[in-house]
Write a structure and sequence with these properties.
Elements: H1 5-71, E1 81-84, H2 98-104, H3 117-121, E2 128-130, E3 136-141, H4 159-195, H5 205-208, H6 213-261, H7 266-292, E4 303-306, H8 307-322, E5 328-331, E6 342-345, H9 347-364, E7 370-378, E8 381-387, H10 420-430, E9 434-440, E10 451-459
Parallel strand pairs: 5-7
Antiparallel strand pairs: 1-3, 2-3, 4-6, 7-8, 8-10, 9-10
Helix pairs in contact: 1-4, 4-6, 6-7, 8-9, 9-10
Length: 475
């Protein structure tokens, strides 16, 4: 079974080439055979006419002279005749082949082999020449001489047939080779450009637009190159952001030490330095978490978890943090009536994802408002929705808030590192889940958003996988 457009193209090219060559060869060979038959028949008629003229002019001696001249003519494929008189004697004393002897005696019925075409087609029409005095002579065609090269000796094979076959085969082979090697060379060039550091390298459109395996390979290469470029640019941006985040607290610490050296209150400056050290410690901790969840890192531990218990613990911590700020953290009644929610994963990273999302919501929700959590069964898994009453996020930045160090303009949080939602996104991806955000609609059409909703979804894990331990309910 042929699979794929490239395999079909190769098969079609070879099949069409062989078919064309075969049809052309048959047509030319048939034409050539017809021409040879016509030439043989004409040559036989000319020979018989010449023999009749020789007999009329010179009698028996004239016919003998014609036979000698005709027998001495060069050419392996020219018609040659034996001349037999009424008594069965050949005029030149040449022996009669057994096939002709049987034909003369009327005992042969099977086709002749190796004789000229004229004789094979009309076996019983042996030309008979007669003189005025009643002498009769029969002209018997001799078999053709054996081929020197056996079956490879093709008499009268036209050069045009060979040239046609070679030409068609060469053109088809060139087209097929070009069709395969050109995209391969395009891919090679794009790969070498990418390896040389040119991240914008892409496969030419003539190859990427093909609708076969090579075209799909070119598309996969372009996607890979785009992904590699995005990852490298993201890493460079991450390094710049980390440098900026570290430089700011270090600059404040240096300023505090300078003020202390100039006589400022040491206790105040030490408190400032201690706060900046805490920020640096938090930044380093978040960076380590982010690196542990990077693509290619070891997968998190897998155990059966009670998601409800993990969310309860995060909600308790959120309430403790919310009270001093005049905010609240509370449950929203689930529409499924409080079904059991169990997943498979790592308790530390699942809790980290939940805490980072809830803490981010607490930072942005308005004073006197509440952050609500709702746990439901959705899409064959379990979803946690965290809603705040903050200003929302511009529509074109809803996906970017999960990138490291991304901050929405005008919503900067002094004590935040910009890594919480990025850690949550990577933790969800490591568990086969997803995270997404949407603005909650305002009170009136066209009004500003009334808050932000972040949805975390985990696949169901009611049954433990291989190596899973018992269900865990932290708290």
């Amino acid at each position: 079974m042929i699979r794929g457009r490239l395999a079909l193209r190769i098969f079609s090219a070879i099949f069409a080439t062989l078919t064309l060559v075969a049809v052309g060869a048959i047509a030319l060979a048939s034409w050539r055979i017809d021409v040879q038959h016509a030439q043989a028949a004409a040559a036989a008629r000319d020979a018989v006419q010449a023999a009749a003229i020789a007999l009329a002019d010179g009698g028996r001696e004239g016919l003998i002279a014609w036979a000698r001249k005709q027998d001495a003519m060069p050419g392996d494929r020219k018609p040659r005749f034996l001349v037999v008189d009424e008594w069965g004697e050949e005029l030149l004393g040449r022996p009669l082949p057994p096939a002709l002897q049987a034909l003369l005696e009327g005992a042969r019925t099977e086709p002749l082999e190796g004789f000229p075409e004229v004789m094979e087609r009309v076996q019983q029409r042996m030309p008979v020449l007669a003189t005025d005095d009643g002498q009769r002579f029969r002209l018997l065609p001799l078999p053709t001489r054996p081929r020197r090269l056996g079956p490879f000796d093709l008499p009268g094979l036209p050069v045009s047939l060979l040239l046609m076959a070679l030409g068609v085969t060469a053109l088809a082979s060139f087209w097929l080779a070009r069709s395969i090697t050109r995209p391969v060379l395009d891919l090679q060039g794009a790969t070498e450009s990418l390896a040389a550091g040119r991240l914008e390298a892409r496969v030419p459109a003539r190859t990427a637009s093909r609708r076969d395996e090579l075209g799909r390979l070119a598309g996969a290469f372009d996607s890979m190159a785009a992904r590699i470029g995005a990852l490298l640019r993201s890493r460079e941006q991450l390094l710049r952001d980390v440098s900026h985040e570290i430089r700011s607290p270090l600059a404040r610490m240096r300023l505090a030490t300078g003020l202390a050296a100039q006589g400022a209150d040491p206790a105040t400056q030490l408190a400032r330095i201690d706060a900046e050290i805490g920020r640096l410690d938090g930044l380093v901790s978040d960076l380590l978490d982010l690196s542990r969840l990077a693509p290619g890192a070891p997968p998190p531990a897998r155990e059966r978890l009670d998601l409800q218990a993990l969310v309860d613990r995060s909600l308790t911590d959120a309430r403790f943090e919310a009270e001093p700020q005049g905010k609240r953290a509370e449950w929203a009644a689930p529409p499924d009536g409080g079904a059991e929610h169990r997943i498979t994963g790592d308790a530390h990273w699942v809790s980290s994802a939940i805490e980072n999302v809830v803490r981010n919501a607490l930072r942005h929700t308005a004073a006197g408002s509440a952050v609500t959590l709702q746990l439901t069964a959705e899409d064959g898994g379990h979803a946690l929705r965290v809603r705040d009453a903050g200003p929302g996020v511009p529509q074109d930045e809803l996906q970017r808030i999960f990138e490291p160090f991304h901050r929405v303009a005008g919503q900067g949080i002094p004590d935040g590192t910009g890594l919480g939602l990025a850690i949550a996104a990577r933790a969800m991806a490591a568990h086969g889940g997803s995270i997404e955000a949407r603005n909650l609609p305002g009170a009136a059409p066209g009004a500003a958003p009334s808050g932000l909703e972040v949805r975390l979804w985990w696949p169901a894990g009611d049954r433990p996988t291989a190596g899973d331990g018992p269900a865990v309910s932290p708290g």
